[in-house]
């Protein structure tokens, strides 16, 4: 039954009634997408963007809170922005359209359902289905490219409408792991007469433009890959210490020290980045080591910033003539193809070469904006 506008009823009252109905439909149908479709069938004046919010039982302010939660509070969106987007979807000439990146976040937010715990695949294209052709051309191209990825149904409709993401053709990613690409061989800087060929895998991101959150099994899989590369260096690597760069690197150093280096001493380097400046916190820990020690530095990811260059200079100042190895979980690529053919196709290739490392070990390649370790370790 359609929700009729009662004489004198405020838009806020109608919104509350629609949210109540949307939540009820979700309970009956078990799907935000289906509840939104039913709401639009009953109320043709309700745009898809608004219907999906109602299907989650959210007010505009609550939807904004959910949006900020999805971005880990790196945004401070308000209900007025949600209202502007929905006004645009309803009237076109008023309000303002959401960007492609905002649609991605909204799709993730609404996919959590009324309780905020679901993981239903929601199409960013479905959110603006009736207004697709009114988006900026760049965002239309982005939506089409996004729809062409293997995890969703392909193909825009012949009439130019937004491509549909069919739930039945969506590949579900298990909650306890992340998708990984096939192994490939990459030649990296290594010791004299060492084996430069390492076996690397890619970490494809099913949500472009968002950080890829790693699950614990995926994190452990990468550590196992690093251990395998170290064992196949071509000579035995006996580390005097493993240093972790920040908390994620410290976890890596702890595992490598225990599993591969006979429980060698563990160091900790707590970095602070202020714009283009890098500094080390007083909480950093430097174990006592022999002269000219062999040190393995562990970092979670390497992008553009010259963190490894700064760290190696500090290590050599404290431990003169140290032989330094670098083990990194994820290395960002310059292009879209994660299965790179050359070490120089990595964004951090030049800074790793300049650091004069004895050898480099890389578990996986990744795309921007990067990867997030389990429990958001920093």
From TrEMBL:
Give the protein name, as stated in the record: Uncharacterized protein
